[in-house]
Write a structure and sequence with these properties.
The structure is a homodimer of 421-residue chains. With 421 residues, chain A is of the alpha/beta class. Chain A is built from 14 helices and 16 strands. The N and C termini of chain A lie far apart (58 Å).
């Protein structure tokens, strides 16, 4: 098989399908989503059998248990896929919305209309549920999509692709609107991210390694984040109870997520009071603390205490490890964040009005919070209804990306025969 | 001079200055703009002298009269620069605006804040007024900027840079917030468009040749448009008077602009009626008509009539030339537009409600119009107050780009101690 030719054919078909999707009305797109959900319920046994083939191959290939776990399509995972589609149906249609129509002195009326981006390429790793989640968001937002899942999930993804195609056809939409790349050849990814004539944006979902690799080669723009080095700054005027709750939650609610706190900054004035009490909580989870000299002195006696190195400030642990630095106040905290943050999510804990406003305004990250856990930085928690990914970039979508991030605004002009003079 | 090192230093200084700009309040940024305007008025003689040096060098180098004309800083051009700055001062500050703050079931309140992008790189050709226009928009939107003007205008740009620096300093803002590249070495452009760590977006202003060159090398995202192959479609249900006025204005108001019509599509039912009358108007301007076979037959006898080739549908003439095609109706018109348009601006002339709505919804261009001249696609005409450029891309800004296109939205969260459970 000539992969380049195959991918170009996929691209041409996706581009053609995207025109039909952009024309389709809300009811038709929602009908497709409901039909896909029903087909998944009906064919749950077939999906499990396909998943079994993937799992057997993966086990034979010696995949790590954690990977096998992510690859498994459990009954709960199937139910969640179906529930996810149902929730997407219930979301308001973002497409066609016209806003800000205003008359100009010339007599024309100018505003903007929300329209689909066109063709979305999605590259992901083992989890087969992404196939359905991503297809659902793209169908809802009137886009065509090209899905490239992990090679470990190929059987399950093929089975899901058939059900998605059935749902699209049942609603009278082109089956090419959702294409699952039917090869495990890595060259397919290389082709997908370098055909801007057929693909409008790439959403990579996966680990830092995958995304860093894609960034080097991609000529299609990406909605992506590389890592989440998130900070919580406990201000001198912090409410102690809030500082303890958020300091613990932001680190320990889940270790492996990108919105987990990796570095804690504490104002010198409150450090001797707050750090020992926080350490008591961290100890219940055996969290390793990597501390700067001042914090080391305050935390002396904590059983999992290590001196922080420069490298720690740049590290996303994704584990029960936290780096801690004592700072003079909000200026030093923001300087540290500006230098080391991955611009994902930062929070200040304070009761001081002016410090709260300054932190919100001056910290240049996708999410900036006052008195809340960084763990809230997420499409569902923000009320987007669903999330296709998270962006640490500043152009186009920033932060959790929902349906709107898969759309663009074009200008529309209502005229009455006006000409320019 | 080591250009790479020089540009990196420029980048580092710009990044540092961007933090101060993001913190600066509206009054401070406006004061800088007013001081720059006053300095330009005061030093108009010096500017004209610097411009004279550029013009003498350009004349000695044998530059074409049209280029010399664009390079000339006339009294009118100076007055327009000053007036432009005054208008920018009067615009509402886009920075810091918080929108859509909504309570979530968890108790947190989530919304978005508009913030500067950071560092904007602007690459332009001869016109020295762009130095001041671009600096003004970047200062107003709280960004730092790196300006790289045409080498022909280097003396004038240096003189303007001094006045901009004076204005920034007078308002207490860092002079590095606007840096004019002080070398005519082309390697400086290559460096500027490949340092994403210091530059957030590049806005190229210039001809298709410049932009195509930049597109091949840039790793920094660009807000750009390559060309403007704009279409007007005269529907069977068009009002004849509107069709004649707009058909003439869209082509003949100005030939060299990107929003000028290059291809006219006419529904078969109305072509015999509208084309001869339009031709009468085009004849007053000696417009060359390149027609498909049907239009050729209808226009027989027109003195500047040529048979269109496939190449014509792909050509931006920027001249008194128009390609004309007779189509069956709106579907064929939209198919033609989808195939050949540069996605800049398209207009339909019709009194048919359903055709108007279909055209608005289904044509995938940055500006889509009903019964108005394509020449209206412009930041001033749309009410953006000023325009840094036009984008034919779908991500981030699309169509005329004003102050908002130089900003991004970050999420802000007001909490009260909430943690995720």
């Amino acid at each position: 098989m000539d992969i380049k030719q195959y991918m170009q054919d996929v691209g041409i078909r996706a581009r053609a399908a995207s025109r039909a999707m952009a024309r389709a009305d809300s009811a038709t797109r929602n009908r497709a989503l409901s039909l896909i959900a029903a087909a998944i319920v009906r064919d749950a046994d077939l999906l499990r059998a396909a998943n079994r083939r993937d799992l057997d191959a993966a086990a034979a290939a010696g995949l790590a248990p954690a990977m096998l776990d992510r690859l498994t399509l459990s009954d709960a995972a199937i139910a969640t896929m179906v529930e996810g589609l149902t929730q997407i149906v219930a979301l308001a249609d973002p497409i066609g919305e016209i806003s800000n129509m205003k008359y100009r002195p010339t007599g024309i009326q100018v505003g903007q209309m929300r329209v689909p981006l066109g063709v979305i390429g999605i590259i992901y790793e083992a989890r087969p549920n992404v196939t359905v989640d991503a297809a659902g968001l793209c169908i809802k937002s009137g886009n065509a999509t090209i899905l490239r899942g992990g090679s470990e999930a190929i059987h399950c993804n093929r089975a899901l692709a058939k059900l998605v195609a059935e749902g699209l056809a049942g609603a009278g939409l082109p089956q090419d609107a959702v294409q699952v790349i039917d090869t495990t050849d890595r060259a397919a990814v290389g082709a997908l991210i370098t055909m801007p004539e057929y693909v409008d944006v790439i959403v990579p979902r996966g680990g830092k390694g995958l995304i860093a690799r894609l960034m080097e080669e991609a000529t299609v723009p990406m909605i992506k984040h590389l890592d989440g080095i998130c900070h919580v700054y406990i201000d001198a005027k912090a409410d102690l109870a809030k500082a303890l709750d958020i300091g613990f939650n932001a680190k320990c609610h889940r270790y492996g997520t990108c919105n987990t706190m990796e570095t804690l900054l504490v104002a010198r004035a409150i450090a001797p009071q707050v750090l020992p009490q926080l350490a008591e909580r961290y100890l219940t989870k055996q969290v390793e603390l990597r501390a700067d000299p001042e914090a080391l002195a305050i935390l002396a006696g904590y059983p999992h205490l290590v001196a922080a190195t420069e490298e720690d400030w740049r590290t996303e642990y994704l584990a029960a490890i936290l780096s801690i630095k004592v700072v003079d106040g909000i200026d030093e905290a923001m300087d540290h964040i500006n230098q080391y943050s991955s611009r994902h999510t930062e929070a200040i804990i304070t009761e001081d009005y002016s410090d709260a406003l300054r932190f919100l305004r001056e910290v240049d990250s996708a999410s900036v919070m006052v008195n809340a856990s960084t763990r809230f930085a997420d499409g569902f928690e923000y009320g987007l209804g669903a999330e296709i990914g998270i962006s640490n970039d500043k152009l186009h979508a920033r932060g959790p990306v929902g349906l709107e991030g898969l759309t663009s605004l074009k200008y529309v002009v209502f005229g009455h025969g006006e000409v320019r003079t």
